[in-house]
Design goal:
The chain has 2 domains: 72 residues, Arc Repressor Mutant, subunit A (Orthogonal Bundle), CATH 1.10.10.10; 177 residues, GAF domain (Beta-Lactamase). Helix content is 51%, strand content 18%. The chain has a 6-stranded antiparallel sheet with strand order 5-4-3-8-7-6. The protein has a two-stranded antiparallel sheet with strand order 1-2. The chain starts with a helix and ends in a 6-residue tail after the last helix.
Amino acid sequence: MRNQDSGNATGSQVQSVDRAINVLELLARNGESGITEIAGELGVHKSTASRLLSVLQSHGLVEQLGERGKYAIGFGVVRLAGAATGRMDLAKLGRQTCQALAEELGETVNIAIADDGVAINISQARGSAAITTQNWTGQRTPLHATSSGKVLLAAMDDADRKRNLDHELAPYTARTLVDAEELEAELERVAEDGYAACFEELELGMHAVAVPIRGPVGEVVAALSSSGPSYRLSKQRIRQIVRPMTEAAHELSAQLGYFAR
């Protein structure tokens, strides 16, 4: 009986979500509609339509035009649309940010996003001092062995992080963090410090540092990184360039709709 009740509850929830989407589509098509009209379109009682509208209104997705007036799409939808548009524009917007930062730092700059357990580089620019011609754009790199990956992991909730690390971690070099407890402690430091660094953890002789890029509601959507040879990108220099990197990431985050409070 409990299984049947659970199934009925799930079905009811799915139906409510479906009806809520129908309400938004209706208002997008008509511009504005009253409860009676909405109930008629959905084929439900006015009280059901009223409850749906109340929930949508509480999230800013619809608004009532005057007391007991008709309903229209709310500005909360604009925020959600901005988030989707921002994600699609991230690679395009990121090219300019990467180029400007690469020119300032003289190093290779990348933007990476998390995808199916790895970090994928979606934009890159090389500075005047960069000695490698390797193009990382489109390359899949391990989350646990890169500065970008650490930033992305540190921003995940426990369930997502566990899912992305639920496998044997490959030791790319002798410096790669493969112990779960050591990596978790490192990610806690990343979250606290606001940046991540890697010292020869993916390739010998290469250091890197990354900072988060945030979306409209403050969620980490990508990582902005700078990498270079260990003799030039020392631990001291990494601490020095964190600030301009963070400023660049904030500017890009603002273009995506995020404004720090």
